[in-house]
Amino acid sequence: MFSCGLCSNTYRFRARYLAKRHMLEQHSGFAWQCQGCKGLFNRSTSKHACSKDGRLPPMVLVRRSNMESGQKVEEEYNSFLRSTSSLITTVSGEKDQSKANRSISHQKTMKRKIEDSRKVQIDTKLKEFKIPKMTQGMQEKERQEVERLESEERERAKEQLEREQQEKEEERLEKERQEKERQEEERLKSKEHEKAKEEKLEREKREKEEERQEKKEQEDREERKERPQDG
Question: How far apart are CA 151 and CA 200, in angstroms?
Answer without folding.
Answer: 73
